[in-house]
Design a protein that fits this description.
Elements lengths: L1 E2 L7 E5 L4 E5 L4 E5 L5 H11 L5 H8 L12 E2 L2 E2 L2 H10 L5 H26 L4 E5 L6 H14 L2 E4 L2 H4 L2 H14 L20
Helix pairs in contact: 1-2, 1-3, 1-4, 2-4, 4-5
């Protein structure tokens, strides 16, 4: 996996609290996504369920696991759902070691993502994948993507962590690129939380 500031990709795997999408970049077309909650939102909720602050703390716990616990695995074509695995995690939260639960939740949900990514990759003949969003910081996800690269002979790129976790820098950089292309909007801009990338 390569860390870059600027690269042209074929497909983006966008994983954050609010979004989980696979985007075909030449057309800015969402070809796969979560059908319920974003993966980052799910991981944060799971963390709070067992007394942690967020997904980052959940991952630290997962890195000291001892065994895998079976979790629900829900993939529908190039789409995923995460509410079922979260509900299952909550049911098991007092019955198993928290380290094993964290490890199992993260590995299962990331495996779901990579299955849908592989389908999109073959459907769109993609060789260059951009990983972005807050969840792109996950060590476990990045390790799984290294194996993915070797297995499918593709290249995965991602920005340094400070850009994946900072919405302000993402918005500022987008504004900079639009300004360079001569696009200007009068302020104030009215936020639309339901605006989708494929509406651009």
């Amino acid at each position: 996996m390569e860390y870059v500031n600027n690269v042209e990709g074929d497909i983006a795997l966008y994983v954050s609290g609010g979004n989980t999408q696979i985007i075909y970049l030449p057309e800015l077309k969402v070809v796969g996504e979560t059908l319920d909650i974003g993966i980052g939102n799910m991981l944060d909720k799971a963390a709070r369920e067992i007394g942690l602050k967020n997904a980052s703390e959940l991952e630290q716990l997962a890195l000291s696991h001892e065994q895998y616990i079976e979790m629900p695995y829900t993939v529908k074509g190039m789409h995923t759902t995460f509410s079922g695995i979260l509900t299952h995690f909550k049911r098991l939260s007092s019955k198993y070691d928290k380290r094993d639960l964290a490890y199992s939740l993260m590995h299962t949900s990331y495996a779901m993502l990579l299955e849908t990514l592989a389908r999109a990759m073959f459907a769109y003949n993609a060789k260059k994948i951009i990983l972005c969003g807050g969840v792109a910081q996950s060590k476990i996800l990045n390790e799984m993507l290294k194996e993915f690269e070797a297995l499918y002979d593709v290249k995965v790129y991602r920005a340094p962590n400070e850009f994946n976790r900072d919405n302000g820098s993402m918005i500022a950089y987008t504004g900079y690129l639009l300004f360079k292309k001569g696009k200007k909007d009068e302020l104030p801009v009215v936020p639309d939380p339901n605006y989708r990338i494929d509406h651009l």
